[in-house]
Queue: 2 jobs
Job 1
Amino acid sequence: MTDTTEASGDVTDTSEDVTDATDTTEPPQPRETVEVSVTLNGESVTQTVDAGTFLSSFLRRERYLTGTHRACESTTCGACTVLVDGDPVKSCNVLAAQVDGSDLTTVEGLADDDGSLHPVQRAFWDTHGLQCGFCTPGMVLSSIALLEETDDPSVDEIRTHLSGNVCRCTGYTKIIESVKRAAGATDD
Amino acid sequence: MATLRYVAPETVERACSLLAEYGDDAAVLSGGQSLLPTIRRRTAACDVLVDINDLDGRSFVERDDDQLRVGCLVRHADVADSSLVRETLPALADLAGSIGDVQVRNQGTLCGAVAHGDPAGDPPVLTALLDADVVVANTDGGRVLDGRSFYAGDHRTALETGELVTEVRFPVTDDGTGVAYEKWTPSGESYPVTTVGALVELDGGTVTEAALTTGALESKPTPMDEAAGVLLGEEPTDEVLDRVARTLGENASPSADHEGSVAFKRELATTVARDALGGAVARARGVQ
């Protein structure tokens, strides 16, 4: 299944088509392309994309950040979860246009420049909170958002918070242990 | 489908003029949690998305006398986490916190779900039960629609082409009145198979007003007046509440589908109604 958008890369500025001379500030008109400016993992990015470009496609195809995984493409599995202004959202069900002006964090933005893992990544590593690893970027980002809200979440809170992230390998036990371990680590 | 076009107006007036100009080709994009899957599947009827997220001052949750006002850019997560909602209409906070999963609640808007009118959607049930005011803007200015008569059928509402829901105003109930919302879903984040909203007003230990509305069972939120009538004038004992819930289940008209038989859904409705009734009575007695 491909995107609704053609990945042609042909981008034309259609603003010249707007010819309402009476208005000094022209009202916006529907356009086939959209300029998106975001802070992506700390870096300012401005790019023009087709209007129907989903955020997951923007990240993977335009920015080559393939750590954001696509699986169900139907807002179910959570593998494509990224943080928008700190809040987890499913990037397969958000348009790139909608996050214009936002601060985005993907899994690529978590480790330090020297390669040392984020504490939550480290906890998943140490606890073996993954098997195939496909769901892991989404799991880690959702867990980071939870630990921003709550220092010491209960198992029920973790389960509820991660209910939008599906794992088909682990049975979740090790994932929940990983989050508990990360919560302990952040207390230090 | 023509190539998708996108526009993000900064005023309600501009949004309405765009919606009027493009008519049925246009769709309002707020959270997009229901709209965007149809874009992805290429089943959407629209090719112009009018993104309302740049509208100023529409993310409010505030109390205005006896109404709780929720602006059209308020996300489910904001409703669920709002201390004002929790204090004034806790059933709405419960409802919002039960929608989808964390990621969906961070994007989806309450007003969007009200306007979308999914038969299994959660917000329509309390909108109808409480007869909330659905505030609508259009190129003529706007109008206020009654929540009780807002829903016409499966994804069909009283909204006309070119109209935008700008806010929903829920009535704040007095002390002595309790509202509760309960549902059953086959798994955590999926759409519910049965939902029930209950309102109970107590005076001197007896019920002076009662209302029940089901969702997900039929094509739109359905008032269950006969069941609610069983409560009137009664002391809400367990036995009475059981009887009310059974009446609701017997009167429900679900259709059989992959989620269950008619008998199964009626049994579910009875159980869920009993929970909602218990919750509403407890809140009417002042138990949070």
Note: The beta strands of chain A are 33-40, 43-50, 81-84, 87-90, 103-105.
Job 2
Amino acid sequence: MTATTADHDAHTPVPQQRGTARRLLLGPGWIRAVSIAALFGAIGFGIVVVLRWWGGWHPILDGQPLVLVSGLVAAPLGFLAGIGTFDYWTYYALGHPTRPEDHSSHGARSWRDYFRVNTDHKVIGVQYLVTTVIFFLIGGLLAMLMRAELARPGMQFFDTQTFNGLFSVHASLMIFLFVIPAFAGLANFAVPLMLGAADMAFPRLNALSFWLLPIAGLMMVLSFVVPGGAFACGWTGYAPLCSTHQPMGAIFFNQGVQWAGASSIMTALNFLVTIITMRAPGMTFWRMPLLVWANFTTSLLVVIATPFIAGSQFFSMFDHVMHTSFFDASNGGYPLGYQHIFWFYSHPAVYIMMLPGFGIMSEVIAVFSRKPIFGYRLMALSLMAIVVLGFSVWAHHMFVSGMASWLRVPMMVTTLLIAVPTGIKIFSWLATIWEGKLHFNTPFLFALGFLSMFVIGGLSGVMLGAVPIDIHVSDTYFIVAHIHYVLFGGSVFTIFAGMYYWFPKMTGRMYNETLGKLHFWLTFIGFNLTFFPMHLIGIEGMPRRVADYAPKFAGINMFISLASFGFGASVLVFLYNMITSWRHGPIAPSNPWRALTLEWQVSSPPPTFNFTEIPQVVGSPYEYGVPGAQHAILAPTRAHETEEAEVPVS
Amino acid sequence: MRRGPILALLGIGTLAGGIAAAVALFLPWLPPVASTQRARMDEVFWFVVVICIVIFAIVVAALVYSVLRFRAAPDDDSDGPPIHGHTGLEIVWTLVPTVLVTAIGIFSAIVLARNDALGSNPLRINVTAQQFAWSFTYPEAKNLTTGTLRLPINRSVLLTFTSKDVIHSFWVPEFGQKQDTVPGLHTTLHITPTRVGTYPVICTELCGLGHAVMRSTAIVMERGAFAKWLKSQTAATSSPSTAVSGAAVFKNNPCGSCHTLTAAGSTGKIGPDLDKLPQYAQEAGQPLEQFIHTSIVDPNAYVQKGYPKNVMPPFANLPKAQLDALVQYLIQSSKKG
């Protein structure tokens, strides 16, 4: 942030116009956000009271519809309107003159610009990352509390309601508020630059997608303080436990998922349109960096699959609040229906949480091995293969659910086949590293950590694909181990790699390499000590999602808890490094990694509109070691001067 | 490739594979085998584990060798050789995994089909799951119902599950079989016990606040002992005496998994402590007998402070004789405690 400010020190501030007080109150911003949120909340409250009174029910006796309509739907909409995400569209809809070249909400000139609606993809990328890291910390803290309780059998610190809330909110935050949006944040920053575009296709939609996220996250965290406690039915929210047997916290989960899902869908549409229509001249699909390919395929998954989880959560919430019976068997509902709809999203969601990481890996591994990506086309095609196969495996989460038993073998075959494109990627990365000139900077360390950990997660995935093994270990700690090897050893390692890799480009400053390496080793060791023993206790007979367990698992659980505290503490090194480097790190050159992709050919941080002129792409982005090879031809860099000239004067 | 790298790769691969194999063999991964289904599952398990160890060893060998061998000097700004791919290699690492996973798929499908096949003359047992307890009914023995699952050795058993409230899941690790119980569905599971012993019955699907304590026991008996037990139980249910019957009702219903009652030896902590019933009744301002009766058939009528509502299912369907016996039993036990 400071670096950006420094760049703009010479820039004359926008002259203050008349009616400053009026603008402060009525212009887009936090004051208006709070007041309109309160107003909308009150209107929502009023509508429910009037309708209930009219329908002959007691107007306020039942808190759930009131909280739902006023707190979880109307107030967030008011917040979005107040903070200013709809302003431009409202002008347009009301017939006011629009300002086609209005860039007043674009780019960051001071730290304040990160706290308002901003349409610059680079600012939005940073907003995403900071927000998601905050939810990562909260989610991690919940995990620490959980491990404290699990250190010994029996109940020590929490009652079961709180404990079940801890693991439910932990998983929901990590999935919906960290892994998925952190990838969206990294891609938001990198993809338009890599394509040679000035911004995303729909910058205002992009801003709206971001502002939905804090709403979703806050809803899940706040569910701890509502009467009855947080939703305690797991992040999977299986019906009928979640739809009819939960306190009010359950609807905070249902609605939180809706807001996060809406954000996801809008971002994915934006990526698809951007990637299809805004590639620089010469940037054919076969010349796109694999990060762009990865986000293209991820966006396809998001757009097709996310509406299914929206549906499942609406049905579940209707059962809860309006006493419908979609999943209530005693009134003709079908509980397994929930699982089918839920997993039709949530299995592809595993790839939504993996493919962008694959993209980051391809960038980092090629750059730090100084070699072209091995088998580029097969790498891109295997992403597409995963997308297609990803939609045909959902019921492997349901081998013991009681669904039609013939469905198990075909789902097993497709599940096992996904190992093939995934294997292609692993082997191609290894071949890329082979005979390279390896530079062990922090991003590359995390990439190597990813390769080794993801192989373990992938292999335990193959074990789970085999139905007889799955029947034995499903819903045990083996599953907990597997998903953490895939989602932490896989996804989170790639997120860390990406954050270190693009840190110089985002902030204009270098991070501390020694601290980065220390962070990697603490994470790598702590992670394995925490999660590897979970395979063992799972196979031996410890179910997951329990606060209390058989005494024979006491020793190993104490070990896991102690390891997890060390593992959790490693995040502090990361935080310290990021914060101090952002403020005082050495100024970063435009291309510290000597990478070929386009984002490294402009200044760090890039000018507000990325490129002086749209570049002409002439070759592959991975031609390391090829004499005279070029990825793109750029206009001569006069970044600082052009930036000054391009800043619009309103 | 020269011979040096191949030898080094083999060496690292063998070491990695050896360590993985040692972890697989020397740690007690799998609980004892107590059914034919588990024995077959173990075959698939070890088949897949061997494949996994080989793949893991190959990846680790390539990775570790590269890290040791291809490190660039700090001042080396040159690039590696511009190798863009190798069609032969790419075909190999597409086809070999395809063959391996196909083999796993075929093996698994065969085992699954055999595990699903029911033997002749199966013992049928109806299993009812509810928050937070299991009950097992033997239709062959005048619908005898118990809280503990007793099975004869070497006889095919067909379990049919129903759930009264939410989804639960029945798992006995030593049997290697698991099945969810779904409200509105009758799901089934086949088990052929092969080893006499006592094993835990574990609920593995999150079913609410008492999920962790939703446990029971499966006892595999010699066939003669089983027949004898079945006969004695059938006889016992037809001649109840009040005091004994109250304790039996408490035991055969899930009370103990959530409530502490010293007289019954139960230590559940999900619901209120039943040793303190007289004190609770006083706080509720009701006579003890009426208070206990109402709390069983309509638990939400009065919820003790500090405990959530809607957790205890109503037991309004208990036969009157059993209900009265249970109430008397609780009055006597709590006054003692």
Note: The CA atoms of residues 35 and 193 of chain B lie 4 Å apart.
